[in-house]
């Protein structure tokens, strides 16, 4: 079948990626050795995945990629990674009560366990953080498996960086390429002349932040300020903060740690939602470029404003005194900490929590939902619609109001002083509408599908499930709260959410572009 | 008059004030007509209320019109401000007769409006002036309720503060139907002449050089033609409804005198054809409990949802083929068909779990294969409510508040989309939804083409070049996005103030209904709702009617003036 695209090249390259994925399984293998756990799970997984990688690579050993092939490659890459990522879950949980372990009792149990594992794995690689693990603990699932779960998010984050610099700029339809080409600005592929060098630079920043972060967390532990933050936990959280992931091997997420740890996590979550290209400028001492960047200012401003409102609400008693999170009414430090943490975490799509916010008042929860709509910056690992798109949508609407009254005047939309390409504006409009429509339709479907098997979702639950997966956020509201789980959904809903996480991570476009252009022009 | 902005604004302000003044003069004329109606029914207090209101409206309109008589001709930039400001002012003054009538009518006289044979056991008495009355007229003593009712009328929405419509004076019943009827014509004129500019869907469809479909070059002749069509259709609808109500054979219809039947047929013909949705019966169309009446209303509502330029062409050329040739009409019929099926399936599936969600049972005397009585009723209500929602009419034949959330959300879809641009429907309209869909697909289909490649897109039977398509898509996308954002924000506000018995689906439904100028209600709207929500609904109806952008231009002009 010819799709107007050399799919063999894309698949061949996929094989290379899968081989590397086998190598990364060394990390959980080391953990297994360190904790004296069964090492066969990851040995077998590595062998199996490596074999798959070699086989797939044989489809086209010397791939030659054009833009179409590159798009097809990324579309498939996340699917393949998610599929491959299920192997350790299925193997390790085989024959146990684990919800993601392979169950062979009946057809229903088999498909159920596979869709659970796929959900967990896709949630990892898309750095979402939604979970179907019934019980989150290293006793139920070994340290090694829990570390694999963390690692998938870190790898997913690296994948996103490649996506941003090498793939999306090739297709400007969703506004990934915002500026007229001659305009200066923090455009990723121009940091250095070559894509590989840029990728390396950004990975270095990503890697550097991760290392610094782990050292600080473990340092706090050694200093006696974080009793639970042992080396395992420090590395585990190091793997899921920078990619705005949100998985934690602790059932209580960050609420399991001291206030000091929570304050340290906040700035690193903020960093994870910033355009990584800006750190390149910071390293070169060009701090004013960062400060003049419209998206960075909007990001910082949005966090500050929403946090301030929420902190006041909490201080005035919007949260009952709960076991995780403690009392906030009249307590300034805890109000500020809980507000900042939750807002930063949900706004840039991380998904950690230090309080069970589903028990807060409705208006506080609606504020959180508002934050979930905003999303991180373009060029970060954050999900959602992304701040820069909202900025441009807003500016375009303002321009429309002006030109409706004055049809003859030509007025460009500017961002940080640069003219934004009209094509990019339309791309952003298309993306935003598509995103909202997909979100709405999925929420309806989830609600109907759950009703089919006799579960009544509240509207807040169905909308937040849809938003938290397409926006790669993780926790929702109601039963899907930060300490809840997506386990009770029917398999069909889980598969829909796997699709949403996938399409949300890829920003919808690559998937559609490959299919539409394949059916359209050739 | 003060001169803000160093004297730059007044010239614009003069143009705007003069034209809005003319609109108010026309409204005063409508009030005078209603005075005649009131006198004909012997309702002296109502006649007084409408007379005073008419005088005040005429005075304000006359002063504005005279004072700025020498202002220059309106230009493009004034059009939107006049439209948005005009709708607002007309709604404000339209509330006056309701408010005044409620205050000049003594509470004792109000009770006379409650029809004698009515079972008022479940009605809540309203306390006014130290006593109580059962007449819903008393609600209009609250200025916000009166303003709400007027805005709901002028925007063709149909949400109402009068819980029991039969207990209103005839003059007030007439005024509610009358303003929906006239407001409907206003909307048609608005969309085919004033708002029709390059980049909006109706321009592309009805004003292209390729297809001389614009009715007439000038607004005045457009109004004249639209009036002829509307009056003709209304007479037709009136006759059909009169026959249908008389022949329906339900207990309620049997109890009506021929005069009362004619009155109801006239009012429902006026509000049905202009997709308004006010009724003069207590439970909207559910009052009749008659499949025949519902079936008669279906084509009337659908007529109102077809673009009027298409009506004109079809009637002038005596060529029904034009209906199928028109993109919007084609899609309208397709959506009507698909939606009825989807909503029926959803409601059939919920028959077991919802109680009292559908009108009555067993309207068919003999058993029908496959379906029992209540299932047939679910289908019947699904058909009527879907058509009522998609055409943005708002006649209600079932207690939608009791439907399950899934069915409500499906109906929300219909209310958000609406019918064809160029008719009296609300929502984002079919042409816009279509343009956004085409535009998104089009953006993707040329991902791999070079930036300067020659590409064209098709919209209906027209081939648009790149620039035109980009404009069409850009405008449609902005309106759609604003619409959705306003809907989400509105529903989030409403779910917080609406009381615990209403879920998020109810809130979403109600806001979509107000903003889409539909008028279906899940039960939130009523005199006891929070004033915040009531005020928000007024805003939703206003921005929905004007398709948002003109209201924003109006606000922008109010703050910064019209000049760059």
Describe what this molecule looks like in 3D:
The complex is a heterodimer of chains A (522) and B (564). With 522 residues, chain A is mainly alpha-helical. Among the domains of chain A are: 7-185, no CATH class; 418-520. Helices cover 62% and strands 1% of the residues of chain A. In chain A, a hairpin with a 2-residue loop joins β1 and β2 (418-419). In chain A, α16 packs antiparallel against α18. The longest helix of chain A is centred in the C-terminal third of the chain and has 31 residues, at 422-452. Chain A starts with 6 loop residues before the first helix and ends with a helix. Mean pLDDT of chain A is 85; it is low at 172-190. In chain B, α6 packs across α8 (219-247) and α8 (219-247) packs antiparallel against α11 (291-304). In chain B, the strands form 2 sheets. In chain B, strands 1-2 form a two-stranded antiparallel sheet. Chain B has a two-stranded antiparallel sheet with strand order 3-4. In chain B, β3 (456-459) and β4 form a beta hairpin. Chain B has 21 helices and 4 strands. Chain B has a domain at 327-560. By secondary structure, chain B is an all-alpha fold. Chain B has helices spanning 10-40, 44-67, 76-104, 107-110, 143-154, 170-194, 201-206, 219-247, 251-254, 258-273, 291-304, 308-317, 321-325, 327-350, 373-390, 405-417, 430-445, 466-497, 504-515, 531-545, 549-560; strands at 126-128, 131-133, 456-459, 462-465. Chains A and B meet through α14, α15, α16, α17 and α19 of A and α3, α16, α17, α18 and α19 of B.
